[in-house]
Amino acid sequence: MEPLDRCARPLRTALVRSSMRLWLPWGLLGLMLGGSLLKALGPLPDSYMSSKRNLLNIYFVKLAWAWTFWLLLPFIAITNYCLSRNVLGMLRRISTLLVGTMVWYVCTSLFLHIEDFTGSCYRSPALDVLFQEHLSKWQCRQGGGFWHGFDISGHSFLLTYCALMIVEEMAVLHVLNTDRSPRLHAVVNALFVGLSFLTLIWVWMFFCTALYFHDFSQKLFGTLVGLSAWYGTYRFWYLKSFSPGLPPQNTSLSSKKPNCSR
Fold it and tell me: Which residue ranges in the chain fall short of pLDDT 50?
């Protein structure tokens, strides 16, 4: 458990603080602008990260919502039940993940429809010969063509939303003390470390997307949709009574952190 504690300590210092939740949205926007600028200044040399076949893209980014969902599920359940001892309250907070699933599904489906509606089928990426007989992306690809439409960056959207959601949920550690229960302490720490490294992967792959892929406008729209989804939930809707609510971040019962010993 000591190596896990040593790993968790600097991560808590960096990620579990209000300034991180305040500045991460602006940091992501800055990474998108900076990466896009570097891409626009000149052709970048090929690298491992510029290939869509890199392992982080295949095994993590392609499954970004699944990774986020299944690591946040036990973390939210354990930490919120530990603080409230209320099953209904815990389930209410877990419904955050159902909201996130709806956000992911609706936005990615909308992106696909926009690309389909705005696109045309060409013989090659050079956009030299137009195939007017193929009216959808699916028909175009089946016919061996290349579909060119407004392809809003799903990666920019989802990695933004996932990173911000994880950081918001980790704020519960401000008021949670598991020192009296070594087993619980180890479980919460393990989940926290896993979520922290996942956040670092999301931010890194977000920058790689900005650096190597998509047009600027496509990345800008994707990032703004991700930021809007986060703001609309954690900064607006979750402040209302009829919502999943925010993670517990303070306690009026005591100036000390509540101990969770069972």
Answer: 252-255
Residue 254 CB contacts under 8 Å (≥ 6 apart), including other chains = none
H-helix or E-strand spanning residue 199? helix 182-212
Q: What is the largest CA-CA distance in the chain?
A: 71
Place of tokens 């439409």: 149
- Cα 141 off chain centre by: 29
The rounded distance, in Å, linking the Cα atoms of 262 and 178 is 9
- In order of 39, 115, 156, 158, 204, the CA distances from 152 in angstroms are 17, 7, 9, 11, 19
Active-site choice (113, 134, 155, 174): 155
What are the C-alpha distances in Å from 225 to residues 81, 100, 160? 31, 13, 9
Burial 85-103 (b: 16+ CB within 10 A, else e): eeeeebeebbebbebbeeb
| Per-residue pLDDT, 259 | 63
Q: Which two tokens stand for residue 258?
A: 């509540």
d(CA 228, CA 47): 32
Copy the structure tokens of residue 77: 């359940």
User: d(Cα 58, Cα 73) in Å, to the nearest integer?
Assistant: 23
On the 0-12 / 13-18 / 19+ scale of CB atoms within 10 A, 153 is buried
Question: What kind and span of H or E run contains 78?
Answer: helix 64-84
Provide CB contacts within 8 A for 10, sequence distance 6+: none
Token look-up 């809007």 returns: 228
Amino acid found at 40: A
The answer to whether residues 120 and 151 touch, using CB atoms and an 8 Å cutoff, is no
Whether 155 is catalytic is yes
174 among known catalytic residues: no
pLDDT digits (tens, 9 = 90+) for 98-126: 999 999 999 999 999 999 999 889 988 88
